[in-house]
Structures are given as structure tokens and as C-alpha cells.
Design a protein that fits this description.
This protein folds into 3 domains: about 130 residues, no CATH class; about 100 residues, Rossmann fold; about 190 residues, no CATH class. It has a 4-stranded parallel sheet with strand order 4-3-5-6, sandwiched between helices. It is built from 16 helices and 10 strands. It starts with a strand and ends in a 5-residue tail after the last helix. It is an alpha/beta fold.
């Protein structure tokens, strides 16, 4: 994993992006060569700006359709399912660019050939990547210190990890008086020292998965020896932060939060985020204003007034504010007065409501909350005071998410489905904690790109 502006990106993902950038540049020049029977189109320097723009647009379109989210287990069928809308999105953006920037115009024939070759080139690249990644060439070999409950999480992580997950658990090292929670076949044989195990199995990392580190059983000297010999020693909390993009609440220590990096709330970061919020909200307001007008009209025709739904939510510092959304449920949805979690196929939603919730159109009026400074464009989802009070009592560190402004979209929203239970709230909190700790302009841009997939493919809507 490489860390770019506090956010972890796998070497495999960067390698795939690099290869596909090369493929897209080549296919554009190939399209020009076939269109004009030019034997050496690479010698035409005037084509480079157009080829670079085409490559950038196509990579951005594929990223927006989730083609670089390697945490899933894609196959050729899934790749084609995402690649086709990526191609259509890319074609539409390039056509718009041709009209806005005539100097980049290359002709419909060249664009059509380039798109056809891009489709074939990306499919072949992905097929080769899927076969190559199964060999585990870039995988790092890791040994887990511990065999208890925390160590069992690594078994679950290995099962859910994609074939190109970037790491492989060699085995587990037991400590005295520790209860066995992992398969006995995964426990490594006892040797004189951890360094001996590292040398025997070629491990490059040791992951600490021990709840209790006090007393004489914690092998601090062995770990120091490994560290001094170039072996990476990683805490389980840092491991899941790196590999899963989340901070596990059951692996946290207050000292890890206090002395660890991140949690940038400086004036510079706050100012950059506010400028980003205003720019992104302004652009989205202009782009979606016709959609908002049509939505308001549909709600009015189906179920009458009110069009908007106002609700109290908890924002930065625990202060409450009134969030604005399009009404997607019947007027008597909570006639009993007690707030309830939204459910899949919730019977309280109207016909228009089901559509706008699926496409997240109901969230658009929150743009005005962003412009008022009550929310950010990107941040944790704001929750109702009733649920916040409940979750603060039952979930450790839940209040940490209120150290920054809530957002219209966020890391938890693009990485996890719609939250509708206490278990979902805990899972989403772990993603929110990652964002609170590592938020940056770079991560905000990544979240916005991933949000396109959520909206277009209707991921997580209820």
C-alpha cells in the first residue's frame, strides 16, 4: 500500500491504472492511424493533447463506475457490466469537450474507432489482470501475532479479500494462556524467536492481534529485533485502516487516537474544505436544478404538499440543525412520534419516493445546508438526535464523527450500503472514523467520483 495525502492506495490499483493509461493512449493513436492511413501517428505531436484528454476522461469515467474499486471480486461479466456505461459516459464527455473546446476536436470517426479499440483493449487488459493477480506476485507475506478473538478477524478478512488483496496471512503465532479462536492448522510451529519464523517463511510484516499487552507474555524484544532487521510491525488497528479503509472500534485504544497521525482540523484544511464545498455545491445546484424542479412537481402531483421534508439532525460539535430533503415518505410515516430505521422496500415510501431514494435525488436539497455552512459536501451522514443518543451509549467513539461537519455524501456511503440497524451503524462508523482521521481534498475527490457509481447504479438506496 502507498499512502497519498493520508489515504491508502494499493500498488496493484496504481499498476492497473498505469497500464490502462498506456493502453488508452495507444488505442487513440491507433484510431488516428487507421482513420487516415497514417503509418506513424505517434510522430504527430499535435495529437498528444487530444490523446491525453481522451485518456483522462476514460480513466475518470471508469473510476466513476467503480472499475478501480478492487475490494470486490470482479470477473469478466462484471467488468463488461461496468465498462459499457463507462464507455457511454466517456463518449458523452468527449463530445461535450469537442463543442466547448474546438481546438481538441478530432472528429467523430477517430473518436468512434478509439472507443471501439478502448473497449477491446480494456477488456483484454482486465482479463490479463485477473489471471495475473491470482498469482499473488505483489502480495506481501504477513505473520499474525496472536490466536484469540482479534486474530480471528484476519481469517474473515482473508476470506472476503479479493484475489489481488495485496497481502497473505502465512499463519498465527500463539502466546501463553491465549484461547484459540483460529483453525489449529493455521497456527505456526514454535521456534526460538519471531525472527526465525520470519526467515523461515519469508514474511515481510508482523501484525499484532493481542488484546492484552501488559505483563511478561508480550514479546517486545522479539518485535524490536524484527523491526531493526527491516520487518514491518503493524498494529491490528493500523492494518484494517490500511487494508479496509476503516478503523475498527474493537481494536482502538484512546492512546492510538491521541498519539496517532491524522485528524487535521487546521485553519488551512478547514478553509480549503469550505472553498471545495461552495464550488461543488454551486456546480451541483446548477446541474441538477431541472431534476429538482421535476422531482418537486412529481411529489406534488402524487401526494400533495409538503414537497420538502425538514428534520432535526446532529452536526459538528453535537449541535443540531434542520436538514432539508425531498419528501419520499407519506405524511403520516411517523404518526406515532417514535423515530424508526428505514427498511428495505419500506412500505411508508411513496412511488416517487422509492425512485428518488434509489437515485439519491431526495438528498439534493441538502445543497442549501452546505451553502449555509451547516454541512459539508463530503462528510459523515448526519443522524437524528434520537439515534445519536442511543448510539453514543452503545457504540464506543461514536461521538468522534461529530468533530467535523456532516456531509451529503461520504466515505461510509460509498463503501457501505444504507444503514438500517445498530450493526449497520457500527460498520458505517468504522468508515466514518477513517474519514475523520484521514480526510483531505484528495480523499474528497475520490469520494465524489465513487458517488457517481452509487447514484447511477443505485447502490445502497432504500
Amino acid at each position: 500500500m502507498l499512502r497519498i495525502s493520508n489515504h491508502y492506495i494499493s500498488r496493484t490499483k496504481l499498476l492497473l491504472i498505469g497500464v490502462e493509461v498506456f493502453v488508452l493512449m495507444v488505442v487513440f493513436y491507433l484510431g488516428v492511424g487507421l482513420r487516415f492511413a497514417e503509418p506513424l501517428p505517434f510522430s504527430l505531436p499535435s495529437l498528444f493533447p487530444v490523446a491525453a484528454t481522451f485518456t483522462f476522461v476514460m480513466v475518470l469515467s471508469m473510476a466513476a463506475m467503480g472499475m478501480y474499486q478492487l475490494e470486490s471480486r470482479p470477473d469478466i461479466k462484471d467488468t463488461l457490466y461496468r465498462l459499457m456505461p463507462s464507455m457511454m459516459l466517456g463518449f458523452g464527455i468527449m463530445t461535450l469537450i469537442f463543442y466547448v473546446l474546438p481546438d481538441l476536436y478530432s472528429g467523430r470517426g477517430i473518436l468512434g474507432l478509439a472507443m471501439l479499440f478502448a473497449l477491446l483493449g480494456i477488456l483484454l487488459t482486465r482479463a490479463a489482470f485477473l489471471n495475473w493477480s491470482s498469482l499473488g506476485i505483489l502480495e506481501s507475506q504477513a505473520i499474525v501475532l496472536g490466536i484469540g478473538g482479534k486474530a480471528k478477524e484476519f481469517i474473515d478478512q482473508a476470506k472476503n479479500a479479493p484475489r489481488h488483496g495485496g497481502f497473505k496471512i502465512i499463519g498465527f503465532v500463539p502466546l501463553p494462556d491465549e484461547e484459540l479462536h483460529v483453525p489449529s492448522s493455521a497456527v505456526l510451529p514454535k521456534v526460538e524467536s519471531l525472527m526465525s519464523l520470519v526467515n523461515r517463511y519469508g514474511a515481510g510484516e508482523i501484525i499484532i492481534a493481542i488484546q492484552e499487552r501488559r505483563g511478561g507474555c508480550f514479546p517486545i524484544q522479539d518485535l524490536l529485533e524484527c523491526k531493526l532487521n527491516g520487518i514491518k510491525v503493524t498494529d491490528s488497528a493500523a492494518f484494517f485502516e490500511r487494508e479496509r479503509g476503516q478503523i475498527r472500534v474493537n481494536s482502538l485504544y484512546p492512546s492510538w487516537l491521541v498519539f496517532g497521525g491524522g485528524f487535521d482540523q487546521s485553519l488551512l484544511r478547514s478553509s480549503i474544505k469550505r472553498v471545495f464545498d461552495l464550488a461543488a455545491s454551486g456546480i451541483l445546484l446548477v446541474a441538477t436544478f431541472p431534476v429538482m424542479l421535476i422531482t418537486a412537481l412529481c411529489i406534488l402531483i402524487e401526494d400533495g404538499a409538503p414537497i420538502f421534508y425538514k428534520q432535526e439532525r446532529v452536526g459538528k460539535g453535537g449541535k443540531t440543525f434542520t436538514v432539508l430533503k425531498f419528501r419520499s415518505m407519506r405524511s403520516d410515516a411517523e404518526i406515532g412520534g417514535k423515530p424508526t430505521w428505514a427498511a428495505a422496500d419500506d412500505p411508508r415510501t411513496t412511488r416517487v419516493g422509492r425512485i428518488i431514494r434509489k437515485l439519491r435525488i431526495d438528498e439534493l436539497p441538502q445543497i442549501f445546508n452546505v451553502l449555509n455552512g451547516e454541512m459539508s459536501f463530503v462528510g459523515p451522514r448526519p443522524e437524528r438526535p434520537y439515534f445519536v443518543n442511543q448510539l453514543c451509549m452503545e457504540v464506543p467513539y461514536y461521538n468522534v464523527r461529530h468533530s467535523i461537519k456532516p456531509g451529503i455524501t461520504g466515505w461510509a456511503q460509498v463503501r457501505y450500503g444504507y444503514g438500517a440497524s445498530l450493526e449497520d451503524a457500527i460498520e458505517k462508523l468504522q468508515y466514518d472514523l477513517y474519514y475523520v482521521k484521514n480526510h483531505s481534498l484528495f480523499l474528497d475527490v475520490i469520494i465524489l467520483i465513487d458517488t457517481v457509481e452509487v447514484v447511477v447504479l443505485g447502490k445502497g438506496g432504500r
